[in-house]
Automatic annotation (TrEMBL):
Top-level division of the source organism's lineage: Bacteria
The UniProt record lists the keyword Transport: yes
Keyword annotations of the record: Cell membrane, Membrane, Protein transport, Translocation, Transmembrane, Transmembrane helix, Transport
Protein name in the entry: Sec translocon accessory complex subunit YajC
TM segment ranges: 20-38
Length: 109
């Protein structure tokens, strides 16, 4: 005996819900996780792969490092040569191309 809690209240166990409620809640959280995180990420990855496959010679591209240039050579090994100006050319991995810019974008800069 405690002065603050009666024996009847302390001995009573909280009522348990149905065992299926936990399973249903886990399924609902799994669906929320899929539609809020996994599905948009897969969609972005699919669009980026499509972008990388469409890169060809003469395209003006923006890299993830912020370089803007014109593609001069596309290698089968996954690398792209980009001319930044008439004298400077860099080779980057095709994965690091962030966007293909519209024609004439380099002249506007």
């Amino acid at each position: 005996m405690s002065l603050f809690i009666s024996d009847a209240v302390a001995a009573a166990a909280p009522s348990q819900g149905s065992p299926y409620s936990l399973v249903i809640m886990l399924v609902v959280f799994g669906l929320i996780f899929y539609f809020m995180i996994l599905r948009p990420q897969q969609k972005r990855a699919k669009e980026h792969k499509k972008l990388m496959d469409s890169i060809s010679k003469g395209d003006e591209v923006l890299t993830t490092g912020g370089l803007v240039g014109r593609v001069t050579k596309v290698a089968e090994t996954g690398y792209v040569a980009i001319a930044l100006n008439e004298t400077t050319e860099v080779v980057v991995k095709r994965d690091f191309v962030a966007a293909v810019l519209p024609k004439g974008s380099m002249k506007a800069l």
